[in-house]
Design goal:
The complex is a heterodimer. Chain A contains 20 helices and 21 strands. By secondary structure, chain A is of the alpha/beta class. The longest helix of chain A has 20 residues. By secondary structure, chain B is α/β, with parallel strands linked by helices. Chain B is built from eleven helices and 14 strands. In chain B, a hairpin with a 4-residue loop joins strand 10 and strand 11. In chain B, helix 2 packs parallel to helix 4 and helix 3 packs across helix 4. Chain B starts with about 25 loop residues before the first helix and ends in a 12-residue tail after the last strand. Chains A and B meet through helix 1, helix 7, strand 7, helix 9 and helix 11 of A and strand 2, helix 2, helix 4, helix 10 and helix 11 of B.
């Protein structure tokens, strides 16, 4: 079992502070766990710890209260060293009800700490969670430290002076819990108090009640006669490069990168979108940035969203669309038109588990084939993949650059994990960005003649804005004649245009592949792409500390690949490729580079755990032939895996899970 | 259309050097000529004019117009055109589609471009057949249409394009047919309308659905079978001997005889292009008992989508100086000082 290889649990009772701690907040969907986690994240960032988070919530908007499939969880890993994943097994589990305990307790490290709201462990709630007896009393939690107290009652007591009804009072439970957590990790409450005052500006009573709950939770830790496991821990700040920092999620970072990209290109941005989990947050973010020359359009469907974006590119804006797997499938035909008409376009794919509706709120990397190969005809398109929330910013700028410099659609791959997760980000200075200002064609480019498909040294055709005098021309999806762009079905012309489209993409200038960690040759290269960056880096680091000749190579440019990648990989005895799919990038690598790469696959909707990668790397050094690669089975001890429910991911009411 | 400076052009200025590749005798030729004849009269500017089309015979139209042109994918032209108008509202956009492109595969987008009221002229060439794919029945084919995919006759009920357009909220609905001398006037009215202007143009597919509209479009006896509507004019046909009146008990239209030109006492309705209820009745008139209602059936403008989007953007941007540096540094931030440990900074 992977977790057996995990580091020993950090006991909250130890006197010396650990260098990292994993905390998971779990409760009912209505308990405000994502908000609690988000605010805890902010306070962690403000304390100067490095961190990574993993929000995990059900596909239903309002699953029945207290049920196993209604459990929502938020995990944060933070520490005084560099943090690259949301952590394997939690050290601390905050369980707001029996269902939250049941779904999550298996993941807790032996010796870890459970904080439970005993007030919620009623007969009714125990039944809903399918407990025959109360786990807080029947000894079944013996391998962990349990701190159970009636958070519900304590919260009601704390907010009494504000005259709230029971229901409203109980809504402050999450703030009470957060207060306790802030005490436990020696955090400043003031930023949260400021935040609550701003959030409830128009409802000062609610703000005051929440603050009272927060303070009460904190005071409980400070003064209550807590013996045993609960003890204050101070995690030292990480030494970080000087500068201004903020926390950022992938959705924010993609949006900001797109805005920056459009500005560097000197263009207005047009974003066409259609609501889909987990991509909608990009639309929500961009719609607030109108003053940056951003027009957003919520279209009638995925197809209209991309078509409108292509129309906007045709008219001289930077067209952008975003979606997730099923929506990307719908956009496919339009991508072919953008390839044929050679118009710039950025397509962001926040991947989720598939096929079909699949796992709307879970993460996967299974759209790589769709991105690289998934169109009719020979339809080459550049593909780049972000490795983390903050990296998505640079990737979005890179996607914009390639799109306008090469007159092509570009696909940017992120995933549900990157979109939702948050990490600290050193705010970059826009002055340091390299502009790539677009020059539209202003006059005929071949003497008295206009040649809309005359190519430049990069193989790109000119971008011609409708409204420009004397440059009227027609484009479309039918094969076009070399240079003139007129309709031409002739055999030699189609051959020439197919070759030209392919050459243009093949020759895109991609930076040489660097080794992310380790030497440029050795026994084993672990090659990853996308959001597996964090766990792979950590696992390779672990292996190297054991003296193993392992290197980490993380690929951003999926298509075309960096020109030196083949040579680089051939300097290793073995190549291991962990992917959250059945081995898609491995197939591309084997095909294009003739490298004998081996897959490590995981398709349970969960990110890789470091321990799983530790184990996979170890196999290459165990002296047993053919004991490499394989797949990682679904791991019930990892993030919450509901035991029933959301069979189709369908919506209950007006939310954003579809 | 848009507010614009009048440009002097002739029909020749709107013709491309491309060989027109419709079947000889196709109704599309007549529509092409009508458009090329109308644009100079409108004072339109080729450089600001964009023809956008989907897929099908009609959708080859942009290649033959000396303007900017975008021949897109099947059914999606309204979405492309919406993006074009939002990116540059100054462009004068004409959308060319057919009964299959616009009402079958693209029915969804047609609905939304009309209800959003994006400012453009939408010409739907209705030939009641799939021409380019060799003659299958279409969503406007009449019941019993024999075709390669319905050898013993189609059984599904046809869509009525103008009724569809009105139903989804169109603010301009008109009808014409390919060889009609009145088509340019219909196009001019559509161009003058601010907003999505929907024009159904009956078009004769001489190969797969020859003369299917002859019952009302044939020159002989046309007077009795065509009701040409004009705002403020009585709804008369058959040389003024018949008219359309409202049966006030049944709340439906009826044909009445007009004697000695006294249409008033016959109760003939005066066409009011802003009357939405009567417009619904006119587009639904069953041909046979009634003549075919043609011309501008409904024309009552509302603010356009692209204006609303631009206004909203202007309002949201008012007083804001866009600074990328400030945007990136937004939210709760902290500073790590030189040679200091993190965490010593303060929330900004």
């Amino acid at each position: 079992m992977a977790t057996q290889m995990a580091e020993p649990a950090v006991s909250a009772t130890q006197d010396t502070a650990p260098d990292s701690v994993v905390v998971r907040f779990a409760g009912d969907s209505g308990d405000g766990m994502q908000l609690t986690g988000g605010q805890f994240t902010l306070s962690t960032a403000l304390a100067g710890n490095d961190l990574a988070t993993f929000p995990d919530f059900p596909a239903e908007i309002r699953a029945p209260q207290g049920t196993l499939f209604g459990v929502s969880a938020f995990q944060i890993n933070f520490g005084s060293r560099e943090i690259s994943t949301a952590g394997d097994a939690p050290d601390v589990l905050v369980a707001m009800n029996p269902a939250a305990l049941k779904v999550n307790v298996g993941a807790l490290k032996p010796g870890g700490l459970i904080i439970a709201d005993s007030g919620e462990f009623t007969k009714r709630n125990l039944e809903k969670a399918k407990y025959d007896t109360n786990p807080l009393e029947d000894g079944s939690l013996a391998q962990w430290n349990v701190l159970a107290f009636d958070i519900s009652a304590l919260t009601i007591e704390a907010v009494k002076p504000f005259g709230l009804g029971n229901k409203d009072a109980l809504r402050c439970k999450n703030m009470w819990t957060l207060g306790l957590a802030l005490w436990m990790f020696d955090r400043d409450r003031q930023p949260l108090i400021d935040w609550l005052n701003t959030k409830f500006k128009t409802k000062p009573d609610i703000a005051a009640a929440n603050i009272a709950a927060l303070n009460a939770g904190h005071a409980y830790g400070e003064t209550a006669e807590l013996s045993g496991p609960l003890k204050k821990l101070h995690i030292d700040p990480v030494p970080a490069a000087p500068g201004l920092y903020r926390t950022i999620t992938g959705a924010e970072s993609v949006s900001l990168g797109l805005v920056a990209g459009a500005q560097l290109a000197g263009l207005e941005m047009f974003f066409g979108g259609y609501p889909i989990t987990p991509a909608s947050s990009i639309l929500h973010y961009l719609v607030r940035l109108k003053e940056f020359g951003v027009t957003t359009f919520q279209a009638e469907d995925e197809i209209a969203a991309i078509c409108a974006a292509i129309g906007a590119s045709y008219a001289g804006s930077l067209g952008v669309t975003s979606s997730s797997g099923p929506g990307i499938a719908l956009k496919t035909e339009a991508m072919g038109l953008a390839i044929m008409t050679e118009l710039p376009l950025v397509i962001v794919n926040s991947q989720r588990g598939g096929p079909s509706t699949g796992l709307p709120t879970k993460t996967e990397q299974s759209d790589l084939y769709q991105a690289v190969y998934g169109r009719n005809g020979d339809a080459p398109m550049p593909v780049i993949a972000a490795r983390s929330p903050s990296d998505a910013f640079d990737c979005a700028i890179e996607a914009c650059r390639i799109a306008v410099e090469y007159m092509t659609p570009v696909m940017l791959l992120t995933d549900g994990y990157i979109a939702n997760a948050a990490e600290p980000w050193k705010v970059p200075d826009p002055e340091t960005f390299e502009p790539f200002k677009v020059k539209f064609l202003e006059e005929k480019n071949a003497g008295d003649t206009l040649l809309p498909y005359k190519r430049d040294e990069k193989g790109a055709r000119p971008w011609i804005k409708p409204g420009t005098p004397g440059l009227m021309h027609r484009i479309g999806g039918i094969e076009k004649k070399v240079d003139t762009g007129n309709i031409d079905y002739s055999p030699e012309n189609h051959q020439a245009m197919t070759d030209a489209r392919k050459a243009k993409i093949d020759n895109i200038a991609v930076p040489d592949q660097q080794v992310t960690l380790g030497e440029a040759s050795g026994a084993l290269a672990v090659v990853g792409w996308g959001s597996t960056y964090g766990p792979i880096r950590r696992a390779v680091d672990n292996a190297r500390k054991k003296g193993l000749a392992v290197s980490h190579i993380h690929v951003r440019h999926i298509h075309p690949l960096p020109a030196n990648l083949g040579d680089l990989l051939r300097r290793f005895d073995h190549v291991l490729m962990p992917e959250m799919n059945t081995g898609q990038f491995k197939t591309v690598i084997r095909d294009q580079l003739l490298v004998d790469a081996v897959s490590l696959t995981k398709t349970s909707g969960q990110p890789f755990q470091i321990a799983e990668l530790d184990a996979a790397i170890a196999k290459f050094f165990d002296g047993i032939a053919d004991n490499e690669g394989g797949d990682v089975p679904a791991n019930r001890q990892q993030l919450p895996t509901p035991e029933s429910g959301h069979d189709d991911g369908s919506l209950k009411a007006g939310g954003d899970a579809q | 259309m848009n507010e614009m400076t009048r440009i002097e052009t002739t029909l020749k200025d709107w013709e491309t050097d491309q060989e027109v590749r419709w079947c000889p005798g196709c109704g599309d030729y007549a529509i092409l000529k009508a458009v090329q004849r109308t644009l100079p009269q409108l004072g339109a500017d080729p450089k600001n004019t964009v023809f956008v089309s989907g897929i099908g015979c009609s959708s080859r139209f942009p290649y033959y117009m000396e303007t900017y042109g975008f021949h897109t994918i099947h059914g999606r032209a309204p979405a492309f055109a919406t993006g074009i108008k939002l990116a540059n509202p100054a462009l004068d956009v004409w959308l060319v589609t057919g009964d299959g492109d616009g009402l079958s595969i693209g029915g969804n987008h047609m609905m939304h471009v009309l209800r959003r009221n994006v400012n453009m002229q939408i010409m739907l060439f209705n030939n009641e057949i799939y021409g380019l794919t060799k003659g299958q029945y279409s969503p406007t084919s009449r019941i019993g249409t024999k075709s390669p995919s319905t050898p013993i006759g189609s059984v599904d009920r046809p869509a009525n394009p103008c009724a569809f357009a009105l139903g989804v909220g169109a603010r301009f609905v008109a009808r014409g047919f390919d060889v009609s001398k009145n088509l340019p006037d219909v196009l001019k009215a559509a161009h003058a309308h601010q907003g999505a202007a929907f024009i159904e143009i009956f078009q004769n597919c001489i190969v797969y659905n020859k003369d299917v509209f002859n019952d009302f479009a044939a020159p002989k006896g046309a007077e009795d079978r065509q009701l040409w509507l004009a705002d403020g004019e009585p709804m008369l046909f058959a040389g003024g001997t018949k008219g359309i009146a409202l049966d006030r008990d049944l709340l439906e239209l009826k044909v009445v005889d007009v004697t000695d030109g006294d249409w008033q006492s016959a109760g003939v309705l005066v066409h009011n292009v802003k009357n939405r209820s009567i417009a619904h009745m006119l587009v639904e008139l069953p041909f046979g008992p009634f003549p075919m209602a043609l011309g501008v059936i409904y024309d009552d403008p509302r603010p356009t989508f692209e204006e609303a989007v631009a206004d909203e953007r202007a309002r949201a941007s008012e007083g804001k100086v866009p600074s990328l540096a400030k945007l990136l540094a937004k939210g709760q931030t902290w500073t790590v000082a030189e040679k200091a440990r993190a965490g010593e900074g303060h929330p900004a």
